[in-house]
Amino acid sequence: MELLLLGLVGALAWKLCKLWRTPHDAPLRSVTLCLLCATLSYPIAMPGGATGVDTVAGHGATKLVQNVLLLVSMYFLMCFYLYSAADEEASRRRANKEAVAVVAVVVVITLAAVSVPHEVFAGSFSTADMTVPQIAVFYGGAGCYLTYVLGIAARWTRTYARMSRRPHATGLWMAAVGLGAMAVACAIRAVIVAVRWADIEVPQRLMAAVAFLLVASILLFTAGITYSGVRARISSSKLWLQHRRDYRRLAALWELLAEAFPDNVLPPASSSAHDRRRARGVHRRYHRRIVEIRDGLVAISPYLLVDGTGIPAPDVDSDELAARLRRASARVKEGAPVPRRAVPLAMTLGSDRAADVKQLIAVSDALVTDRATPLTIKEAPC
């Protein structure tokens, strides 16, 4: 139960963050409300929550509130698919029809629950006396509605999974399997209600297995609807760490070029506090450093030409290029005139951007290894 609640809370928190950014997204709002109702239903069913609800609303109210929340969560799940599959007006009309259906089911199970003494209504699904018609209607009505919604949702999710690509398809298939398993579990529980209504005993192991299937399928569904978002966040975190690491490793090369050509250091775009905070982001600082290094290499490239030939320096290893950059930087600081025009040296370091950055990092590492004197230049404030 704790693991299930933790999964629901995590999924709900993720969807609430997305809904805060896009509050007018109807499908997102529906799935968030679905998770909210499902999450609220579980603390109410726990001993502390059950005691509090029963104290305020009377004995047996906990079970009724929990089931109503589950039914409402299924309604919002249906709305999610409706708003995703059709235009807004058609979705609203179908959602209104489905609202009538869920309200009718809620009214039926509420009347069934309040029409029997709370002693009869007490207990769990496995211990309830299904020979009492109201109890059978309560569990059977809720189970049939859950089976209906979950079955339709599983079919729609499977359709979307076939149309999607990874990683979205993977998450949708997980959600489809979870929904299908939940529908099967609810259908089995409805059959168990009918069997027990006929006063036929059902093995406890079977009911325990169905309860386990229901919990496992909910966890799988929760994992499915958050899979693509979690995976995207993990990929984003990996990229953030890589840019942070590369930014630091490029420091030696940037310092050498910035000391030789301080005018190439880009000034802050704005003096506002908001822009300064954004400029301090890892990705912005990383790309800014790449741009400043490229400008610095273009500016220093004339000093790397082979003396007297007019031919750019040949392709050399990182250590040799680092040594030449040091000598060229020293000539710049000594005020030596520019021997020739600039050449696109930075473009010869790699066949694409990733290879270029890799080569720049190798040169920067070589500068750190073979650094003769410490550099004191400081980066301009972001």
Structural commentary:
Helix content is 74%, strand content 0%. The protein has 382 residues and is an all-alpha fold. The longest helix has 46 residues, at 204-249. It is elongated and about 100 Å long. The two termini are 48 Å apart. The relative contact order is 0.07. Residues 47-59, 306-314 and 372-382 have low confidence and may be disordered.
Give short descriptive properties of this protein.
382 residues; 74% helix; disordered C terminus; single chain; mainly alpha
Q: What share of residues are in beta strands?
A: under 5%
Basic shape: elongated
Mean pLDDT: 76
Distance between the termini: 48 Å
Short summary:
With 382 residues, the chain is an all-alpha fold.
